[in-house]
Every structure is written in C-alpha cells, then in structure tokens.
Specification:
2 copies of one chain form a homodimer. Chain A is α+β, with helices and mostly antiparallel strands. Chain A contains 3 helices and 5 strands; from the N terminus they run αβββαββα. In chain A, a hairpin with a 3-residue loop joins strand 1 and strand 2. The relative contact order of chain A is 0.20. At the A-B interface, helix 2 and strand 4 of A face helix 2 and strand 4 of B. Chains A, B: Keywords: Hydrolase. Chains A, B: This is Diadenosine tetraphosphate (Ap4A) HIT family hydrolase. Chains A, B: Pfam families: HIT (PF01230).
Chain lengths: 136, 136
C-alpha cells in the first residue's frame, strides 16, 4: 500500500494542524472564517461512502470531535460541516464556524470572494484554542 | 418524550420520501438538482455533535446509504453532503447529486437562484430510481 498522498491544491490552500487517527486536521489559509478541514489519509477516495465502514465511523468521530471543539473555541452560532469536492476530488470534510455578520452570512462560504491571509498571531491563537478544546 | 416536530420551513420546502431508522428521507421541491435531505427525528438538535453517539453512527450509515444510492440512480460526478443550518436550525443533512454543467457548477447550490418546481413525472421517476437503489 502506497503512502498517503495529499492533493496538491489542498496542500497549497491549507496547513497541517495535527494528525488524528484517520485524518489530517488542516486549517484553511483564509482568515475570513475559522475554517478547518479533515482529510482522511486514504488514497483514491472521493466519496464518503467509498470509505470502509470502520473509516466511516472514525471520520464521524473525528468530525464531531473537531466540530464540538471549534464551537467551544469560537462560540460560533453554527458549525457548518460539508463534504463537497466538486473541484478537489480527494475526500475532505470542511468544518467551519459561522456567526451572524460574517462574510456572506447566512449563505455558504464556498466560492465566495477571495481568501484573506492570517496574521500569524491570530492564526496561532485560533489553533491553540481549537487544540486545547480537542483534548478536553 | 414529545413526538418529533419537523421545522415548518423544512416541511414547506421538502416532501417526505420515506422514514428510515433515524431520519426522515425528504426531497427538496427544486428540480434544478437531484437534492435530498435527511432529518434526524430528534427534537432540539442543531449540531451533529449534539446527537448521541449511537445516533451519530446511525446518521452516518443512513447518509452513506442514501448518497451511494443517489450516485447509482443519477450517475452524478460528485455527491455533496452537508450539514449547514445557518437559516433552519433543526439538524438536517443535504445530499445532492452534482454534475458538470448543472446550475452553478462547481460552486455550491445553497443560496443560488430560485427553486424550480418538478414536473410530477420527473419527480416520481427520480424517487423511484433512488429508492430502488436504496434497497439493493
């Protein structure tokens, strides 16, 4: 079995936070929303239902763990969870914190405007806050 | 425990296809995309992670069963699966068949344009095709 290969566009648009049991937890390089991504470390899978049943259960567990932590870390009104993949076909799950008044609220974030880079301090602060809530 | 109460907007915008173990499988009244929805029959839940672990597992199972059936039924390029809920807070999972050239492809469907009603024959044909693939 060959080693997991991350899609080049995901590699470019996100950065690694940490590796969980199944997925890489990655952060979008876009400060407009607290926007993370889970990428199952499996090659040649584009749809959730192509994962094995065990991997489906692991992905559900990791998704909900990260979503709950992101809610705690941000106090957001709503967590958006989505596996879309119309452009990048490698399976990836978006986990995004949304609040009234954020860009394009209450519409979707995908395809909206241009990414805005993080200030390093803000980025590190969000990562710290998320990962602290992951372990609690 | 009070009986499950469907959000009035979901009731208006969708119609019941059938009840699965946890969820109502519903179809959006919008012919632009093959667009279904799973609504867990649980009151007062807006986030995936608020479901019990068993319900999370059931929802994963039902989501992937419907997504796989929708892929077979439509031959779509990509199935989009999303729990957003910025407007309607009752937890609901969108399962949508997307293909190159459909409205707003490869962008998201949410918040795009206006719903277009189905011709009854087209609606019944899609429901039949989906549910046949659900049982196989």
């Amino acid at each position: 079995m060959r080693a997991f290969e991350l899609d080049p566009r995901l590699a470019r648009d996100t950065e690694l936070v940490e590796s969980l049991g199944l997925c890489q937890l990655r952060m979008m390089k876009d400060s407009r929303w607290p926007w993370f991504m889970l990428v199952p470390q499996r090659n040649d899978v584009s749809e959730l239902f192509q994962l094995t049943p065990l991997d489906q259960a692991l992905l559900t567990f990791e998704t909900n763990m990260v979503a709950a932590a992101l809610k705690k870390a941000t106090g957001a009104e709503k967590i958006n969870v989505a596996a879309i993949g119309n452009i990048v076909r490698q399976l990836h799950v978006h986990i995004v914190a949304r609040s009234d008044g954020d860009p394009n609220w209450p519409g979707p974030i995908w395809g909206y405007g241009q990414a805005e880079p993080y200030e390093d301090a803000a980025k590190q602060s969000l990562i710290k806050s998320l990962t602290e809530n992951l372990v609690s």
